[in-house]
């Protein structure tokens, strides 16, 4: 019964022979839309193992449908046909022109949160991404800490006084903020809105606490990447080599890092930034962004 219905429905919707008394010839190739049907002279087609359409199914209903459809046109032989002629014939046969509209809409701008323990290489990865990938906006965090040698105001951070920072909190201008090792750090909302409106993807660089807060605020509307060193020793050596911490601060950062790596589970991706292999880590982050852009169900962040 089901098969009978299938036969019947295929007959109505898929067959485009202008007349069933005529058999297709090789000079005038006729075609079907959808699955190819094996036309057989079987008495009871629905009992047959092969999908077949008996002549009695190809009845008046098909001819009525044909009247409403554009006439089937001969498709020129592929090896000889001019491409535009072939396209026109296909369009005519299908009843509508081929569209040049995108089959899938452009991916919407997204927010990428990059986090990881202190000294793992967040800044190094982001610096490299900035050099090689267009269309990303790296949010410049506001901080009340003093500038390190080589840092530039407005590029690395917006360096503000503690009072200015507190005023930004008061005016609800920050998406997230925290007091980190005695200094305030926060993400200005306006910057995110402005660059997302221009179609840019947003990269946020935050510590683990910040990532936790952002997860609470943004949920799954942003993608969270956890950066790790290949092992604890490599991380400690990197921090020592950076020479930016006092020995007390170093101790605090290392102890904190030990706890922080346990938070990996609340992230979407983990990227290993191996000693001397910064490029690999950067490539991995790029691949994640590309994969996210190819997702059917896109994350949509609203700030
Ligand atoms: N793959 C790597 N191999 C070797 N050194 C690296 C690598 N990645 C980063 N570094 C170096 O490790 C040090 C720490 O990196 P970076 O300052 O980027 O870390 P961070 O995660 O931003 O730290 P913080 O959170 O404390 O600001 C820097 O001197 C950086 O150049």
Automatic annotation (TrEMBL):
Main enzyme class: transferase
InterPro entries the record matches = GK/Ca_channel_bsu, Guanylate_kin-like_dom, Guanylate_kinase, Guanylate_kinase_CS, P-loop_NTPase
CDD domains xrefs: GMPK
Coiled-coil features, chain-numbered ranges? none
Q: Which GO terms describe its cellular component?
A: cytosol
Molecular function (GO) terms listed? Answer: ATP binding; GMP kinase activity
Q: What is its EC number?
A: 2.7.4.8
Keywords for this entry?
ATP-binding, Kinase, Nucleotide-binding, Transferase
Guanylate kinase-like domain residues are 109-290
Family annotation (NCBIfam families) = guanyl_kin
Q: Which family does it belong to?
A: Belongs to the guanylate kinase family.
Q: Report the PANTHER family cross-referenced here.
A: GUANYLATE KINASE, GUANYLATE KINASE-RELATED
| Name listed for the protein in its UniProt record | guanylate kinase
